[in-house]
Amino acid sequence: MTRFVKWLLGIILLLAFIIGTFFWFEAEKEVRILCSMFKHGQSTEQVIRTLNTGHHLEYVHQNNRITVDSPKTLGTAKCTIQFSEIGQVLSSEYTQSFSLNKTAAWIGSFGFFGMIFFQLLLALGFPYGKLAWGGFYEILPVSLRIGSGIAVFVYSYGIIVLFESAQIIQLLNKPELVEYSVWIFSLQFGLSTIGNLQSKSEMEKKIMTPIGILFCCLCLTVGMTG
Q1: Cβ neighbours for 14, distance < 8 A, ≥ 6 positions apart
Q2: Going by C-beta distance under 8 Å and a sequence separation of 6 or more, which residues neighbour residue 57?
Q3: Is 207:135 a contact under the CB 8 Å cutoff?
Q4: What does the pLDDT look like over 78-136, one tens digit per residue?
Q5: pLDDT digits over 35-84, tens only?
Q6: Among candidates 152, 132, 154, 146, which has minimal Cα distance to 208?
Q7: Where are the alpha helices (DSSP H) in 77-208?
Q8: 209-223 vs 3-36: helix crossing angle, rounded to 10
């Protein structure tokens, strides 16, 4: 397979991932928002009329209940609407059995912890330099050790950003800063992936390239939540 074909395939897969993730969050949001619109006393006809305005959902009407979900979220976002015997809303409950952005944040954070440990070893002079910084050195020179030391703090900040963006913790309480930071991390890992592909070290190319792609996709997933 030629390099051009590999690059083209990679771009197509990335676009497919972005589009799929976008529609996942749009469908999840639609089910959640519509579910919040159904109030006690509304008629069955009003509810169905509202549901028919949706673009990403499907629903099943059985007896005194309507169950709403979306195939685009694999049924993980669901709204259950209960009706009285005369066809009026008694309750409307939204449930989510799987959170894509929180899962991505947890996986990304565990990965960042691993990178913190790895960069710390490089900063301390351990002979793993072939996996980083272009793979030119087995033991990094002082300037690159300092860079690895800085990377430890960058990845630590990244963990906070992922958790806060996914609303797992609230520490910084600066939504705009967190949002921009997630997209910057996505761009950073996208660029580092390109750099890893050009590395002179086969170890860095084979090991760090998929890691960079994974981190880029995880940050994109968390970032697209907004």
Answers
A1: 217
A2: 27, 30, 31, 34, 51, 68, 69, 70
A3: no
A4: 999 999 999 999 999 999 999 999 999 999 999 999 999 999 999 999 999 888 888 88
A5: 999 999 999 999 999 999 999 999 999 989 999 999 999 999 999 999 99
A6: 132
A7: 100-123, 142-165, 175-197, 202-203
A8: 30
